[in-house]
């Protein structure tokens, strides 16, 4: 029976204290899509404006994985694939890069990728990504796509009927407090926040499991308290280094 799966995560900037890194989250995503030989993976860097450096980095990261057949879908200045539908439906995993979720969704809709990716999801292609590649599958979440300050983004694809807060413990921005305030005030629907290094694996539209590459990182379920505030529940992830 075909399962609809999404792996939405917050990546990390590697530090000396981190025994694991983002490649371990990628391994988890690949395992959800496999085992296949070849394992067809399509990398989509739209949120970074199809930056060549991002493409080169991903190609390098997957070059040693003999089972992976990597393709790259760029949309600037025009789609790099002639038949988008055939190409995307032929993948086992679509990996979406982080960056500007506002620009990502706008460009996707202009090219009809919102409909095509929904068809992929319905057919069993695993959808995954960090940051903007996490937010896009949800109804929305806080974003710095408009300016340095955080604003509510409410135009997500909505494959998952929740909001999403990424980089929840980022010390450089008030993401944690902003997300909870927006949910409490009704600016965003209830949803899940992930601290850096944490990923959420959804099967159908239900959270199946949270995983982490940091032993003390957590996810959170956040909902309104009915009085303008919020209530939250910690979601303890499975540490991938165990």
Write the layout of secondary structure elements.
Blueprint: E1 5-9, H1 22-33, E2 39-44, H2 52-62, E3 68-72, H3 84-89, E4 93-96, H4 101-111, H5 113-123, E5 126-130, H6 132-135, E6 141-143, E7 151-153, E8 163-165, H7 175-185, E9 191-194, E10 198-203, E11 206-212, E12 219-224, E13 230-235, E14 238-239
Molecular structure report:
The protein has helices at 22-33, 52-62, 84-89, 101-111, 113-123, 132-135, 175-185; strands at 5-9, 39-44, 68-72, 93-96, 126-130, 141-143, 151-153, 163-165, 191-194, 198-203, 206-212, 219-224, 230-235, 238-239. The model has no long low-confidence stretch (mean pLDDT 97). The radius of gyration is 17 Å and the shape is globular. The strands form three sheets. An eight-stranded mixed beta sheet has the order 3-2-4-5-1-10-11-14, sandwiched between helices. Strands 8-9-12-13 form a four-stranded mixed beta sheet, covered by helices on one side. It starts with a strand and ends with a strand. A hairpin with a 2-residue loop joins β10 and β11. The chain has one domain (5-239): 3-Layer(aba) Sandwich (Rossmann fold). 27% of the residues lie in helices and 27% in strands. It has 242 residues and is an alpha/beta fold. The relative contact order is 0.17.
CATH top level is Alpha Beta
Unreliable spans: none
* Main sheet properties: 8 strands, mixed
Strand % is 25-35%
CATH superfamily: Class I glutamine amidotransferase (GATase) domain
Output the helix-strand order.
EHEHEHEHHEHEEEHEEEEEE
Alpha carbon gyration radius: 17 Å
Q: Main sheet: which strands, in order across? A: 3-2-4-5-1-10-11-14
Annotation, overall tally of beta strands: 14
Which fold name corresponds to the CATH topology?
Rossmann fold
Helix content: 25-40%
Architecture, according to CATH? 3-Layer(aba) Sandwich
User: Whole-Å distance between the termini?
Assistant: 30 Å
Q: State mean pLDDT (0 to 100 scale).
A: 97
Count of discrete structural domains:
1
Count of helices?
A: 7
Anisotropy-based shape: globular
**What structural category do the secondary elements indicate?**
alpha/beta
